[in-house]
Amino acid sequence: MTLSTRTLGTTSPLTVSTLGLGCMGMSEFYGATDEATGIETIHRALDLGVSFLDTADMYGPFTNEMLVGKAIAGRRDEVQLATKFGNERLPDGTRVGINGKPEYVRAACDASLQRLGVDHIDLYYQHRVDQSVPIEETVGAMAELVEAGKVKHLGLSEASAETIRRAHAVHPITALQTEYSLFTRDIEDEILGVIRELGIGLVPYSPLGRGMLTGKQEWTTLEQGDGRASAYFPRFQGDALEANLRLVDEIGKVAADKGCTPGQLALAWVLAQGDDVAPIPGTKRVKYLEENVAAADVELTEADLTRLTEVVPRDAVQGDRYGDMSSIDR
Protein backbone atom coordinates (compact mmCIF):
# COMPACT_ATOMS: atom_id res chain seq x y z
CA MET A 1 0.00 0.00 0.00
CA THR A 2 1.04 3.61 -0.46
CA LEU A 3 0.22 5.79 2.50
CA SER A 4 -1.42 9.06 1.55
CA THR A 5 -0.51 12.48 2.93
CA ARG A 6 -2.17 15.22 4.92
CA THR A 7 -1.28 18.88 5.32
CA LEU A 8 -0.83 20.44 8.74
CA GLY A 9 -1.41 24.16 8.97
CA THR A 10 -2.53 26.70 6.40
CA THR A 11 -0.36 29.76 7.05
CA SER A 12 2.82 27.67 7.33
CA PRO A 13 1.76 24.35 5.79
CA LEU A 14 3.68 21.09 6.21
CA THR A 15 2.66 18.00 4.26
CA VAL A 16 3.21 14.78 6.21
CA SER A 17 2.25 11.13 5.93
CA THR A 18 -1.33 10.42 7.04
CA LEU A 19 0.06 8.43 9.96
CA GLY A 20 3.30 9.32 11.69
CA LEU A 21 5.50 7.29 14.01
CA GLY A 22 6.10 8.18 17.63
CA CYS A 23 9.64 7.05 18.45
CA MET A 24 9.71 7.67 22.22
CA GLY A 25 9.19 4.07 23.35
CA MET A 26 12.25 2.94 21.41
CA SER A 27 14.39 4.59 24.10
CA GLU A 28 12.42 4.93 27.34
CA PHE A 29 9.22 4.65 29.39
CA TYR A 30 7.62 1.45 28.04
CA GLY A 31 9.96 -1.28 29.23
CA ALA A 32 13.02 -2.81 27.60
CA THR A 33 14.50 -1.03 24.60
CA ASP A 34 16.77 -2.12 21.79
CA GLU A 35 18.32 0.40 19.42
CA ALA A 36 18.72 -2.01 16.52
CA THR A 37 15.04 -2.98 16.66
CA GLY A 38 14.08 0.68 16.82
CA ILE A 39 16.15 1.51 13.75
CA GLU A 40 14.67 -1.47 11.91
CA THR A 41 11.17 -0.21 12.75
CA ILE A 42 11.96 3.29 11.46
CA HIS A 43 13.41 1.87 8.23
CA ARG A 44 10.27 -0.21 7.72
CA ALA A 45 8.15 2.86 8.40
CA LEU A 46 9.92 4.82 5.69
CA ASP A 47 9.52 1.90 3.27
CA LEU A 48 5.77 1.92 3.98
CA GLY A 49 5.50 5.67 3.42
CA VAL A 50 5.36 6.63 7.10
CA SER A 51 7.63 9.64 6.76
CA PHE A 52 6.49 11.79 9.72
CA LEU A 53 8.81 10.89 12.62
CA ASP A 54 8.35 12.27 16.13
CA THR A 55 10.99 12.46 18.84
CA ALA A 56 12.08 14.85 21.62
CA ASP A 57 15.28 15.76 23.40
CA MET A 58 13.94 14.49 26.75
CA TYR A 59 13.32 10.94 25.49
CA GLY A 60 16.16 8.86 26.84
CA PRO A 61 17.09 11.57 27.71
CA PHE A 62 18.82 12.54 24.47
CA THR A 63 19.31 8.99 23.18
CA ASN A 64 16.09 8.86 21.16
CA GLU A 65 17.18 11.75 18.95
CA MET A 66 20.48 9.94 18.35
CA LEU A 67 18.63 6.75 17.42
CA VAL A 68 16.38 8.61 14.97
CA GLY A 69 19.41 10.38 13.54
CA LYS A 70 21.11 7.05 12.86
CA ALA A 71 17.96 5.62 11.31
CA ILE A 72 17.43 8.47 8.85
CA ALA A 73 21.06 8.86 7.83
CA GLY A 74 21.11 8.75 4.04
CA ARG A 75 17.31 9.07 3.89
CA ARG A 76 16.80 12.58 5.24
CA ASP A 77 14.92 13.72 2.14
CA GLU A 78 12.20 11.11 2.80
CA VAL A 79 11.44 12.38 6.30
CA GLN A 80 9.35 15.08 7.93
CA LEU A 81 11.28 15.28 11.17
CA ALA A 82 9.65 16.58 14.35
CA THR A 83 11.31 17.05 17.71
CA LYS A 84 10.59 19.00 20.89
CA PHE A 85 12.25 21.03 23.61
CA GLY A 86 11.10 22.33 26.97
CA ASN A 87 11.09 19.34 29.33
CA GLU A 88 14.59 19.88 30.67
CA ARG A 89 16.46 16.84 31.93
CA LEU A 90 20.01 16.06 32.94
CA PRO A 91 22.00 13.27 31.23
CA ASP A 92 21.31 10.97 34.20
CA GLY A 93 17.57 11.38 33.62
CA THR A 94 16.88 13.84 36.44
CA ARG A 95 14.00 16.16 35.57
CA VAL A 96 14.95 19.81 35.96
CA GLY A 97 11.59 21.29 34.99
CA ILE A 98 9.91 23.08 32.10
CA ASN A 99 12.08 25.69 30.39
CA GLY A 100 10.80 28.15 27.80
CA LYS A 101 13.49 30.81 28.20
CA PRO A 102 14.73 32.19 24.85
CA GLU A 103 18.37 31.31 25.52
CA TYR A 104 17.35 27.75 26.35
CA VAL A 105 15.28 27.49 23.16
CA ARG A 106 18.35 28.36 21.08
CA ALA A 107 20.68 26.02 22.94
CA ALA A 108 18.20 23.12 22.89
CA CYS A 109 17.70 23.45 19.13
CA ASP A 110 21.44 23.42 18.41
CA ALA A 111 21.87 20.35 20.60
CA SER A 112 18.98 18.54 18.87
CA LEU A 113 20.38 19.31 15.41
CA GLN A 114 23.72 17.83 16.47
CA ARG A 115 22.21 14.65 17.92
CA LEU A 116 19.93 14.16 14.92
CA GLY A 117 22.78 14.79 12.49
CA VAL A 118 20.69 17.16 10.35
CA ASP A 119 20.90 20.81 9.32
CA HIS A 120 17.25 21.59 9.97
CA ILE A 121 14.21 20.35 11.87
CA ASP A 122 10.94 20.25 9.91
CA LEU A 123 8.62 20.78 12.90
CA TYR A 124 9.93 22.08 16.22
CA TYR A 125 7.56 21.94 19.18
CA GLN A 126 7.55 23.46 22.61
CA HIS A 127 6.95 20.21 24.50
CA ARG A 128 5.23 21.80 27.50
CA VAL A 129 4.32 25.41 28.13
CA ASP A 130 6.58 27.19 30.63
CA GLN A 131 4.04 29.15 32.63
CA SER A 132 6.78 31.35 34.11
CA VAL A 133 7.83 32.71 30.70
CA PRO A 134 5.45 34.64 28.44
CA ILE A 135 4.63 32.48 25.42
CA GLU A 136 5.48 35.47 23.22
CA GLU A 137 9.10 35.30 24.38
CA THR A 138 9.41 31.57 23.79
CA VAL A 139 7.79 31.66 20.35
CA GLY A 140 9.80 34.74 19.48
CA ALA A 141 12.97 32.72 20.03
CA MET A 142 11.51 29.84 18.03
CA ALA A 143 10.74 32.25 15.20
CA GLU A 144 14.40 33.29 15.16
CA LEU A 145 15.28 29.64 14.52
CA VAL A 146 13.02 29.71 11.46
CA GLU A 147 14.70 32.87 10.22
CA ALA A 148 18.10 31.20 10.71
CA GLY A 149 17.02 28.17 8.64
CA LYS A 150 17.44 25.75 11.54
CA VAL A 151 13.70 25.06 11.78
CA LYS A 152 11.04 25.04 9.05
CA HIS A 153 7.79 25.04 11.03
CA LEU A 154 6.73 25.65 14.64
CA GLY A 155 4.48 23.62 16.90
CA LEU A 156 3.10 23.58 20.43
CA SER A 157 2.30 20.60 22.64
CA GLU A 158 -0.37 20.48 25.36
CA ALA A 159 -1.11 24.20 25.05
CA SER A 160 -4.37 25.87 26.08
CA ALA A 161 -6.59 27.75 23.65
CA GLU A 162 -5.43 31.13 25.00
CA THR A 163 -1.76 30.17 24.73
CA ILE A 164 -2.28 28.94 21.17
CA ARG A 165 -3.85 32.25 20.15
CA ARG A 166 -1.04 34.28 21.71
CA ALA A 167 1.65 32.08 20.16
CA HIS A 168 0.09 32.15 16.70
CA ALA A 169 0.01 35.96 16.82
CA VAL A 170 3.82 35.98 17.13
CA HIS A 171 4.56 33.42 14.40
CA PRO A 172 2.34 30.99 12.49
CA ILE A 173 1.91 27.73 14.39
CA THR A 174 1.73 24.76 12.04
CA ALA A 175 0.58 22.05 14.45
CA LEU A 176 -0.64 21.36 17.95
CA GLN A 177 0.44 18.05 19.41
CA THR A 178 -1.78 16.83 22.20
CA GLU A 179 -3.31 13.62 23.48
CA TYR A 180 -6.43 12.67 21.52
CA SER A 181 -8.15 9.33 21.16
CA LEU A 182 -11.42 7.56 21.82
CA PHE A 183 -10.32 7.70 25.46
CA THR A 184 -9.24 11.38 25.56
CA ARG A 185 -11.53 13.91 23.94
CA ASP A 186 -11.36 17.04 26.09
CA ILE A 187 -9.79 19.13 23.28
CA GLU A 188 -13.19 18.98 21.56
CA ASP A 189 -14.54 21.47 24.12
CA GLU A 190 -12.52 24.49 22.99
CA ILE A 191 -9.05 23.77 21.64
CA LEU A 192 -10.10 21.92 18.49
CA GLY A 193 -12.31 24.80 17.43
CA VAL A 194 -9.56 27.34 18.04
CA ILE A 195 -6.88 25.54 16.04
CA ARG A 196 -9.30 25.08 13.15
CA GLU A 197 -10.22 28.75 13.27
CA LEU A 198 -6.51 29.65 13.10
CA GLY A 199 -5.60 27.03 10.50
CA ILE A 200 -3.41 24.88 12.76
CA GLY A 201 -3.13 21.12 12.22
CA LEU A 202 -3.60 18.50 14.94
CA VAL A 203 -1.04 15.80 15.77
CA PRO A 204 -2.61 13.41 18.28
CA TYR A 205 -0.17 11.51 20.47
CA SER A 206 -1.22 8.36 22.30
CA PRO A 207 -4.05 7.79 19.78
CA LEU A 208 -4.12 4.21 21.07
CA GLY A 209 -4.49 5.26 24.71
CA ARG A 210 -0.90 4.22 25.49
CA GLY A 211 -1.65 0.84 23.99
CA MET A 212 -4.79 0.09 25.99
CA LEU A 213 -7.02 0.53 22.95
CA THR A 214 -5.24 -2.29 21.12
CA GLY A 215 -6.80 -4.80 23.52
CA LYS A 216 -3.59 -6.84 23.45
CA GLN A 217 -1.67 -6.28 26.65
CA GLU A 218 -2.09 -8.06 29.96
CA TRP A 219 -1.86 -4.90 32.06
CA THR A 220 -1.32 -6.63 35.39
CA THR A 221 1.98 -8.17 34.23
CA LEU A 222 3.88 -5.29 32.64
CA GLU A 223 7.61 -5.70 32.24
CA GLN A 224 10.00 -3.91 34.57
CA GLY A 225 10.56 -0.29 33.60
CA ASP A 226 7.15 0.15 32.00
CA GLY A 227 5.81 3.44 33.34
CA ARG A 228 2.22 2.37 32.78
CA ALA A 229 2.51 0.20 35.89
CA SER A 230 3.06 3.29 38.04
CA ALA A 231 0.62 5.68 39.67
CA TYR A 232 1.71 8.25 37.07
CA PHE A 233 -0.90 6.70 34.77
CA PRO A 234 -4.13 6.41 36.80
CA ARG A 235 -6.10 4.84 33.95
CA PHE A 236 -4.00 1.69 34.33
CA GLN A 237 -4.63 1.26 38.06
CA GLY A 238 -7.20 -0.77 40.00
CA ASP A 239 -10.87 -0.08 39.46
CA ALA A 240 -10.16 2.46 36.74
CA LEU A 241 -8.28 -0.16 34.73
CA GLU A 242 -11.13 -2.65 35.07
CA ALA A 243 -13.69 -0.07 33.92
CA ASN A 244 -11.57 1.03 30.99
CA LEU A 245 -10.91 -2.51 29.83
CA ARG A 246 -14.66 -3.08 29.71
CA LEU A 247 -14.81 -0.20 27.22
CA VAL A 248 -12.01 -1.81 25.22
CA ASP A 249 -14.07 -5.00 25.06
CA GLU A 250 -16.92 -3.04 23.50
CA ILE A 251 -14.54 -1.49 20.97
CA GLY A 252 -13.36 -5.00 20.16
CA LYS A 253 -16.91 -6.03 19.26
CA VAL A 254 -17.21 -3.15 16.79
CA ALA A 255 -13.79 -4.00 15.37
CA ALA A 256 -14.80 -7.61 14.85
CA ASP A 257 -17.81 -6.45 12.84
CA LYS A 258 -15.53 -4.24 10.74
CA GLY A 259 -12.98 -7.01 10.17
CA CYS A 260 -10.12 -5.11 11.78
CA THR A 261 -8.27 -5.07 15.09
CA PRO A 262 -9.36 -2.84 18.00
CA GLY A 263 -6.21 -0.77 17.54
CA GLN A 264 -6.90 -0.24 13.86
CA LEU A 265 -10.44 0.82 14.66
CA ALA A 266 -9.20 3.31 17.27
CA LEU A 267 -6.73 4.81 14.79
CA ALA A 268 -9.35 4.92 12.05
CA TRP A 269 -11.59 6.89 14.44
CA VAL A 270 -8.85 9.48 14.98
CA LEU A 271 -8.17 9.70 11.23
CA ALA A 272 -11.89 10.22 10.60
CA GLN A 273 -11.90 13.38 12.74
CA GLY A 274 -10.57 15.49 9.86
CA ASP A 275 -8.02 15.80 7.08
CA ASP A 276 -6.06 18.20 9.28
CA VAL A 277 -5.34 15.37 11.76
CA ALA A 278 -2.15 13.26 11.55
CA PRO A 279 -1.80 10.90 14.55
CA ILE A 280 1.58 9.53 15.64
CA PRO A 281 1.02 6.09 17.20
CA GLY A 282 4.19 4.94 18.87
CA THR A 283 5.71 1.51 18.61
CA LYS A 284 9.12 -0.12 18.80
CA ARG A 285 8.25 -3.22 16.77
CA VAL A 286 7.75 -3.74 13.04
CA LYS A 287 4.68 -5.98 13.41
CA TYR A 288 2.74 -3.32 15.32
CA LEU A 289 3.89 -0.64 12.91
CA GLU A 290 2.49 -2.65 10.01
CA GLU A 291 -0.80 -3.18 11.85
CA ASN A 292 -1.06 0.55 12.54
CA VAL A 293 -0.37 1.50 8.93
CA ALA A 294 -3.15 -0.81 7.77
CA ALA A 295 -5.58 1.27 9.83
CA ALA A 296 -5.41 3.90 7.09
CA ASP A 297 -7.42 1.51 4.91
CA VAL A 298 -10.24 1.12 7.45
CA GLU A 299 -13.15 3.29 6.33
CA LEU A 300 -15.70 4.23 8.95
CA THR A 301 -19.28 5.14 8.07
CA GLU A 302 -21.35 7.65 9.99
CA ALA A 303 -23.10 4.68 11.56
CA ASP A 304 -19.74 3.27 12.70
CA LEU A 305 -18.75 6.60 14.24
CA THR A 306 -22.08 6.90 16.01
CA ARG A 307 -21.78 3.37 17.38
CA LEU A 308 -18.29 4.08 18.72
CA THR A 309 -19.53 7.19 20.47
CA GLU A 310 -22.28 5.12 22.02
CA VAL A 311 -20.02 2.35 23.30
CA VAL A 312 -17.36 4.82 24.49
CA PRO A 313 -19.17 7.92 25.78
CA ARG A 314 -16.84 10.85 26.25
CA ASP A 315 -17.02 10.77 30.05
CA ALA A 316 -16.89 6.99 30.44
CA VAL A 317 -13.12 6.66 30.76
CA GLN A 318 -11.94 6.40 34.36
CA GLY A 319 -8.83 8.17 35.69
CA ASP A 320 -6.84 11.25 34.73
CA ARG A 321 -4.40 11.09 31.82
CA TYR A 322 -1.51 11.70 34.23
CA GLY A 323 -1.19 11.36 37.98
CA ASP A 324 0.16 14.90 38.03
CA MET A 325 -1.60 17.23 35.57
CA SER A 326 0.21 20.38 36.76
CA SER A 327 2.44 20.56 33.67
CA ILE A 328 -0.59 20.72 31.35
CA ASP A 329 -1.42 24.26 30.24
CA ARG A 330 -5.07 24.96 30.98
From TrEMBL:
Identify the residues that the record assigns to the NADP-dependent oxidoreductase domain, covering every copy.
19-311
Keyword tags: Oxidoreductase
User: Which Pfam families does its entry note?
Assistant: Aldo_ket_red (PF00248)
**What SUPFAM superfamilies does this protein's entry cite?**
NAD(P)-linked oxidoreductase
Query: One GO MF term, please?
Result: oxidoreductase activity
- The signal peptide here is none
Q: Which domain of life is it from?
A: Bacteria
What does UniProt give as GO cellular component? cytoplasm
Residues in a coiled coil are: none
PANTHER family per the UniProt record, alphabetical? AFLATOXIN B1 ALDEHYDE REDUCTASE, ALDO-KETO REDUCTASE YAKC [NADP(+)]
The name this protein goes by in its record: Aldo/keto reductase
Which organism encodes this protein? Nocardioides marmorisolisilvae
